[in-house]
Amino acid sequence: MPETSVAHFYDELANDYHLIYADWDASLRRQGEALAALIGQDHAAVLDCSCGIGTQAIGLALHGHRVTGTDRSPRAAARAAREAAHRSLTLHTAAADMRRLPFPGGRFDTVVCADNSLPHLLTEPDVHTALTEMHRVLRPAGLLLVSTRPYDDLLPDRPASTPPQVHRTADGAERTVTFQLWHWHDDGEHYDLEHFQLHPADGEWRVTVRRTTYWALGQDQLTRLATEAGFVESAWRMPQETGFFQPLLVTRAGP
């Protein structure tokens, strides 16, 4: 897929992204609480370098952290800022690629790259470049939190789809159905994703399909790439331990 496909995917999804969740507000509070517990300090300067519409960034701002959000999707980043303002929170956002972060070195206490965002980068050099940038903008011993899908569990079977999720809109008036189809490449590591959302409209179902590509990046691979980018004390923390919905690589910037 072309280089612009990830930004286009999330630009198109930005208005409907919250419909992936049964209760988006509850999810951002829950995710923010789990990440804040791992950060373990008050009023940290946090960069969410894949902020989307603000699920983790707003959750962390609710806990008093000073959060900046960037995303490759301008529409998603703009919505994150609006959603934060609606909740009387400050969230500075910008459209930026995590491989070219627009900040001076040593700016942040913590960098967050959550919700399976890093695997949108499809090669080792690109992932290494992104991790090197995250290391650059962290203060010495700064914390990096990266979450991905549990690919070590998924790769043996290479699933073709996700189960449908049926959620009601905030006013309870309408239902939305969301599911994904995964088309695996011949290399067995990359897959094209088709994201389906079905919305009721005038007695019919309106179907929206959006497409992007991922790399099923295993935990050992990601840990190795983080080490090569200068991170130390790397450990994987599982959802049953952290309360976060995906496995998390927890690591710190080395000297």
User: What is the domain tally?
Assistant: 2
Radius of gyration: 18 Å
- Name of the CATH class of the largest domain: Alpha Beta
Distance between the termini: 37 Å
Here the CATH topology of the largest domain equals Rossmann fold
Residue stretches low in confidence (pLDDT < 50, at least 5 long) are none
Beta-strand percentage range: 25-35%
Tell how many strands the DSSP assignment holds.
11
Helix-and-strand structural type: alpha/beta
Largest sheet: 7 strands, mixed
CATH architecture of the largest domain: 3-Layer(aba) Sandwich
Spatial shape: globular
Average of per-residue pLDDT values? 94
Key features of this structure:
single chain; 255 residues; alpha/beta; Rossmann fold; 8 helices; 30% helix; globular
Short synopsis of the structure:
With 255 residues, the chain is an alpha/beta fold. The protein has helices at 5-13, 24-39, 55-61, 74-86, 124-137, 151-154, 219-228, 239-242; strands at residues 45-48, 66-71, 92-95, 108-113, 138-147, 165-168, 175-184, 190-201, 204-215, 231-237, 248-253.
